[in-house]
């Protein structure tokens, strides 16, 4: 049911703006796009805005450019009095109805001429600085901590993340609400066998492979996943490929070299590093025998829901937010143990009954977590903020 809009909300769209992302959305982009699509059904009129680099405002096609670049706006926050703020309402024109609030979904938080709600997905840069780029790391972390405290209210994706935000950002726990993410409805629609098989043939895949989806970076722990796969019995590796879908990220050079070396040795390892077609990605999930997610740290873990909705058995790390998201629907393992990861992969490959139970439980879990429900809970946070 669609409600007539009762709130006007500015939404940060920098992570979804094609002119700024090249068409490739990360997890924050998926989250932001989902809110933009589903909040109107919860009675919220959404106006997307982006921080564009200087001279690039004219390139924006799906959002309005904020009047300053983010570095300039953040610097202004530091050196100007608290009474000075970014005037987003001025962009709407003097005759336009002003925004009720602004929702920053991507950590770019500055003072504005309306209340600001911020989604903080995790505290990785502060909690685990070894996993992020060292360039200006301390300065960026300091700026992020100060920015987080400017938000009138904070939304996060899991109960696990609350502890991190309190400890690392110093956010008052009473100003944090948990809103679980969702999965888009089309993930529940299984592609036809012809569509799926065409995509698999295009990438030289055989149905039943082990699948991983995510950027290649230290936090995702793909090195141990590769080690675990190569430790499997040869007959199992021959029967089931390891398919890694994700662009190379920071500190991925050694991993990329190891993947290429395994391929040169004839191992059944496939790396798809330029896949941006969501339709094809759904086909890849549908063709998998098991989805393996060995991440060391997640504020939520959207790929779990995508796998659940796609009807794929899942094995994942039993750490951070992932047990909360899986809610018992996945086989859990110690992500620091190559042997434990390999054992989980072997179990899902060979135990048909367990795999069937995981698929059924995952399907139920995916039906519980929808973007419509996430949007409804997010709108409730907006109303609560404005009522106090």
Automatic annotation (TrEMBL):
Keywords (A to Z) from UniProt: Transferase
Domain Glycosyl transferase family: 206-363
Record bears the keyword Transferase: yes
Top-rank taxon: Bacteria
GO molecular function: glycosyltransferase activity
Domain Glycosyltransferase subfamily 4-like N-terminal: start-end pairs: 26-186
CDD domains in the cross-refs: GT4_MtfB-like
Pfam family, one: Glycos_transf_1
GO annotation terms (biological process): lipopolysaccharide biosynthetic process
Signal peptide residues on this chain, from the entry's feature table: none
Protein name per the record: Alpha-1,3-rhamnosyl/mannosyltransferase
